Amino acid sequence: MITAFHSVGLPDVGILDLIPRVAAAGYRGIELNAELLPWAKPHVTPATDAATRSAIRAACAAHGLAITAVGAHIGEMVDADPAVRADAIAFVNGCTDLAADLGTGFVHILSGPQAAGARSGESWRWFADAVAATVEHARARGVEIGIEAIAGHLFCRVDDYHALRRDLPGVPFRINFDPSHLEVQGEDPGRVPAELGDLIANVHLKDGSGRFPAFAFPPLGEGNIDFPRLAALLREAGYDGAMSVEYEAQVYGFERSDDAILAEGKAFCDRLGV
């Protein structure tokens, strides 16, 4: 496994400034955020120009950082409007093209919340169709698509991975494993490496406490997730990819300096033996 830092943790630092800081903190990889959040602008998007793409790739190479993933989260994959769903698929495909340009082979997505008034079966089919379409686009570019189960979204539980695998035979989607969203729903995150270890392509290190919708993502080690157990299960499953520190605790009132976020995340990885 390798330690990585998800750029969403320091959204106010420009990406070309963040890359050397991540490397100096001892990480071996960086994950790039393409999602627009209420508290964070993306570091990259499909609109990122060719010169910036080249500069990001060169800076990572110069500092010995692998680009481990692009987070192409967009919450309209199951919108009731087919034109909005089509735009969401186009966004993901644009992030896939970006990932190929940057030399990384993994992009992860989410479903978004079920639209008001939509039937669950209909919404599930919309998402399954979107997964099939984005995986097909990605395969032609040597990129894999992973799905992250998100609390409060249509696709949110461990069993959803099993169901989608049954519904999409021959569609090689992967898993972006974020245990925090499972923890705050009262699910056992350990089921993912135990039952679906062959599908995991990227892991987020983010803690969780409480129960959705009354929950928090506190700093690593201050929530309820048993990370040593998860690390052991991942090793048993043969996982050797990125363990990516995803700091969003500032949203829940846990303020840290930029340097502390980087240093504490790396120290946590070290304690896990990553």
From TrEMBL:
<dbReference type="InterPro" id="IPR050312">
    <property type="entry name" value="IolE/XylAMocC-like"/>
</dbReference>
<dbReference type="Pfam" id="PF01261">
    <property type="entry name" value="AP_endonuc_2"/>
</dbReference>
<dbReference type="InterPro" id="IPR013022">
    <property type="entry name" value="Xyl_isomerase-like_TIM-brl"/>
</dbReference>
<keyword id="KW-0413">Isomerase</keyword>
<dbReference type="InterPro" id="IPR036237">
    <property type="entry name" value="Xyl_isomerase-like_sf"/>
</dbReference>
<protein>
    <submittedName>
        <fullName>Sugar phosphate isomerase/epimerase</fullName>
    </submittedName>
</protein>
<feature type="domain" description="Xylose isomerase-like TIM barrel">
    <location>
        <begin position="21"/>
        <end position="264"/>
    </location>
</feature>
<dbReference type="GO" id="GO:0016853">
    <property type="term" value="F:isomerase activity"/>
</dbReference>
